[in-house]
Write a structure and sequence with these properties.
The chain is α+β, with helices and mostly antiparallel strands and about 230 residues long. It has 2 domains: about 35-45 and about 165-234, Protein of unknown function (DUF541), domain 1 (Translation Initiation Factor IF3); about 50-160, 2-Layer Sandwich (Alpha-Beta Plaits). Helices cover about 40% and strands about 35% of the residues. The protein has helices spanning about 1-30, 65-85, 130-140, 165-190, and strands at about 35-45, 50-60, 90-100, 115-125, 150, 160, 195-205, 210, 220-234. Strands 2, 3, 4, 5 and 6 form a 5-stranded antiparallel β-sheet that branches. A hairpin with a 7-residue loop joins β8 and β9 (about 220-234). The radius of gyration is 35 Å and the shape is elongated.
Length: about 230
């Protein structure tokens, strides 16, 4: 009889212990399921630290040999203009010279063509000195006195302003977004008679860089939204 009692007793103890752990796990699981999902925002206005200005210098003519000489002379004047504005040689890139022959276009009315050849010389100014570039942009109008016509290659965006220091401010912006998210979670927790616990899941959003507005493209607005699940505790 005693031999049958011990196995039964062990089974009973095992059932009690397992029941305790199962109940405790169920309780812990329910507590773990109590969380709030919130979004945290961080925004910064920063000054662009790189500017790219693609330029076309335009000439027209009917004599190809004479036009070639004029192109060489004009391109040297344009290059010297930017050197006089304080740009370094590595900030000035000379591109291709594209010459279009209007007479080769079958859709043109040759009788109405004043100049057979149209030449476009490409330059690109790339600099970290934004103010210097903006000054050169204003002063470039003086080239018209020498008969030189400069045009931005991209009419929809004459100068491209870029911010390259995103990696340097990412950590502080993520921290700010997390702090903002916790403040929102704490407000929710107070309304539900709970407290904010540790982070359960954090999802970092994409960083976006846009012009602050159309009139000041050199000032950028950087934005990130993080989505965070905070544990709620009693």
């Amino acid at each position: 009889m005693k031999n049958n009692l011990y196995p039964a007793l062990l089974i009973a103890i095992a059932l009690v212990v397992s029941g305790y752990f199962i109940g405790n796990m169920h309780k812990t699981g329910k507590e773990y399921d109590r969380y709030v999902q919130v979004k945290g925002l961080s925004e910064r206005e920063v000054q662009a630290d790189l500017a790219v200005w693609p330029i076309n210098a335009i000439l027209t003519g009917n004599d190809l040999i004479a036009l070639k000489k004029r192109i060489d002379g004009q391109n040297q004047q344009v290059y010297q203009f930017f050197m006089d504005q304080g740009f370094k040689p590595e900030e000035i890139s000379r591109g291709m010279v594209n010459i279009r022959d209007a007479s080769s276009n079958m859709y043109n009315n040759n009788a109405a063509i004043n100049f057979r050849y149209l030449a476009k010389s490409e330059f690109t100014i790339r600099t970290n000195d934004i103010k210097k570039l903006q000054t050169a942009l204003k002063e470039s109008l003086n080239l018209m006195s020498n008969g030189i016509v400069l045009g931005s290659k991209n009419e929809w965006q004459p100068i491209e302003y870029i911010f390259t220091g995103l990696n340097e401010i990412k950590p502080s912006m993520i921290e700010e977004a997390t702090t903002n998210a916790r403040q929102v979670a704490e407000k929710f927790a107070r309304d539900s008679n709970s407290k904010v616990g540790p982070i359960k899941i954090a999802r970092q959003g994409q960083f976006s860089i846009n012009d602050r507005d159309q009139n000041t493209p050199e000032i950028k607005l950087i934005r990130v939204v993080s989505t965070i699940d905070f544990q709620l505790i009693n």
